[in-house]
């Protein structure tokens, strides 16, 4: 999904059956994927949010392959526009990593190459994360494959739990328990808060708020993303009321109301926040940058605790329409998805898998928190709509506006009703 850079954790794990073959592959390819018999350089575009993990990935590939990959980093906020302009002008990159929520729109606009046959021929195709594949599929054809994985879950401060008289090894399992625990942590003093969320960030809250609704049996769109189900929606109303109560109780810092995602995770790093919804990057960030914070992870629960859910986010990787080196681009994708690459370049550094058969790997076994995060991604859901950016990611759009009005003013029914109308209008546009 589209998140701010601080929210993005880039993780992938795939089978290495083809690694030796791909390492030896040095054949070139001319325009349209025709073999030219000489080495080529494929242009690879990624968002700035991916820079940290993609740079060493490309360097490792280039050291072991005759064909080369040239990496271009695009500012997050400019990526969609720049990519659309390049494809329209007939000068796209050869391979691109895209926030998975944008893929349906790019496929619908004819900006991606159909790779269905190549994808289904992969021996590990059925082990690829189902949500990534769903977002990569448009009208029955596959236009990308999973590239990086993210999942939403709860992170909680065990030391604050203990200070508040709570069991540090028993995270909240219902909405009521989240509220109760948040209230007890808030009572520790004026500088402590029980809960945090970025109140003005549409993407952040589809990521960390929507799983409460999914886990409880609700949704905001129908299965194919063509109709809004925002209002009337008793599950969504209950979830908004849940956040509203914590806001009114003062369990959330006042600064959260206007946070557009810039400080999505910073407050938890201060050690003064008890509970927060977050993404898979948080485990590694806390271990490396905040080693003094004793933290646990837990699923985002349903209202009654009988189920849980997650937002399965991250990026997909595909070949733009008009790529000059289709075969080489797909070879690079295969290499990125290999066992050895993803185990040694990603899992070793705390990434989570996007292949269900590699979720429990030798590195994740060293810290059970990674195992939980990987499981949450495997069961997670993702919003599917060719209008996702207008509906959800726009911080002035109907989703973010509804959250602001419902949670911070208390006009929950009015906010939901207006959002339903706005969703419907956007979904009916061409």
Molecular structure report:
Helices cover 40% and strands 14% of the residues. With 430 residues, it is α/β, with parallel strands linked by helices. The strands form three sheets. Strands 1, 2, 3, 6, 7, 8, 9 and 12 form an eight-stranded mixed β-sheet that branches. Strands 4-5 form a two-stranded antiparallel sheet. Strands 10-11 form a two-stranded antiparallel sheet. The longest helix is centred in the last third of the chain and has 16 residues, at 412-427. 53% of the residues are buried.
Produce the secondary structure layout.
Blueprint lengths: L18 H6 L16 E7 L3 H14 L3 E7 L4 H10 L6 E5 L3 H6 L7 H5 L9 H6 L1 E2 L2 E2 L2 E13 H6 L11 H12 L6 E4 L5 H7 L1 H6 L18 H15 L17 H4 L3 E7 L1 H9 L5 E4 L1 E2 L6 E2 L2 E7 L7 H11 L2 H7 L22 H12 L8 H6 L4 H12 L2 H16 L3
Parallel strand pairs: 1-2, 1-3, 7-8
Antiparallel strand pairs: 3-12, 4-5, 6-8, 6-9, 6-12, 10-11
Helix pairs in contact: 9-18, 11-18, 18-19
Number of domains: 2
- The count of β-strands is 12
Total number of helices: 19
**CATH topology description of the largest domain:** D-Maltodextrin-Binding Protein, domain 2
Q: Shape, please?
A: globular
Mean pLDDT across the residues is 90
Radius of gyration: 22 Å
Brief account:
With 430 residues, the protein is of the alpha/beta class. It has 19 helices and 12 strands. The protein has 2 domains: 5-150 and 313-379, Periplasmic binding protein-like II (D-Maltodextrin-Binding Protein, domain 2, 3-Layer(aba) Sandwich); 151-311 and 384-427, 3-Layer(aba) Sandwich (D-Maltodextrin-Binding Protein, domain 2), CATH 3.40.190.10.
């Amino acid at each position: 999904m589209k998140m701010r850079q601080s929210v993005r954790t880039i993780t992938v794990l795939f089978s290495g059956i083809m690694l030796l073959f791909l390492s030896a592959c040095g054949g070139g390819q001319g325009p349209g994927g025709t073999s030219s018999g000489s080495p080529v350089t494929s242009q690879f575009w990624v968002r700035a949010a991916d820079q940290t993990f993609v740079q060493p990935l490309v360097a490792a590939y280039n050291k072991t392959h005759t064909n080369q990959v040239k990496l271009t980093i695009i500012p997050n906020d400019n990526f969609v526009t720049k990519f659309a302009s390049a494809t329209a002008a007939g000068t796209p990159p050869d391979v691109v990593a895209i926030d998975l929520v944008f893929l349906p729109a790019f496929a619908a606009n004819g900006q991606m190459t159909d790779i269905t046959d190549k994808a289904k021929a992969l021996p590990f195709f059925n082990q690829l994360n189902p949500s990534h594949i769903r977002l990569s599929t448009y009208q029955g054809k596959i236009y990308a494959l999973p590239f990086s994985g993210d999942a939403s879950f709860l992170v909680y401060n065990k030391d604050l739990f203990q200070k508040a008289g709570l069991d540090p090894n028993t995270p909240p399992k219902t909405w009521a328990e989240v509220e109760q625990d948040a209230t007890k942590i808030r009572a520790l003093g004026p500088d402590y808060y029980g809960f945090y969320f970025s109140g003005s960030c549409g993407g952040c809250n589809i990521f960390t708020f929507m799983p409460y609704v999914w886990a409880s049996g609700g949704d905001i769109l129908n299965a194919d993303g063509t109709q809004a189900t925002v209002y009337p929606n008793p599950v969504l109303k209950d979830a908004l009321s849940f956040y509203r109560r914590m806001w009114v109780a003062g369990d959330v810092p006042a600064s959260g109301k206007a946070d557009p995602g810039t400080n999505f995770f910073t407050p938890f790093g201060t050690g003064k926040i008890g509970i927060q919804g977050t993404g898979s990057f948080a485990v590694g960030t806390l271990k490396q940058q905040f080693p003094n914070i004793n933290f646990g992870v837990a699923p985002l629960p349903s209202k009654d605790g009988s189920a849980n859910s997650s937002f399965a986010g991250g990026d997909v990787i595909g070949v733009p329409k008009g790529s000059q080196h289709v075969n080489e681009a797909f070879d690079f994708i295969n290499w990125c998805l290999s066992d050895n690459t993803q185990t040694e370049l990603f899992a070793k550094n705390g990434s989570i898998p996007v292949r269900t058969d590699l979720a429990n790997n030798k590195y994740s076994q060293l810290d059970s928190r990674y195992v939980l995060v990987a499981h949450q991604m495997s069961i997670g859901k993702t919003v599917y709509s060719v209008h996702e950016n207008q509906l959800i990611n726009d911080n002035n759009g109907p989703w973010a506006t509804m959250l602001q009005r419902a949670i911070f003013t208390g006009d929950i029914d009015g906010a939901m009703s207006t959002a339903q109308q706005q969703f419907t209008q956007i979904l009916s546009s061409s």
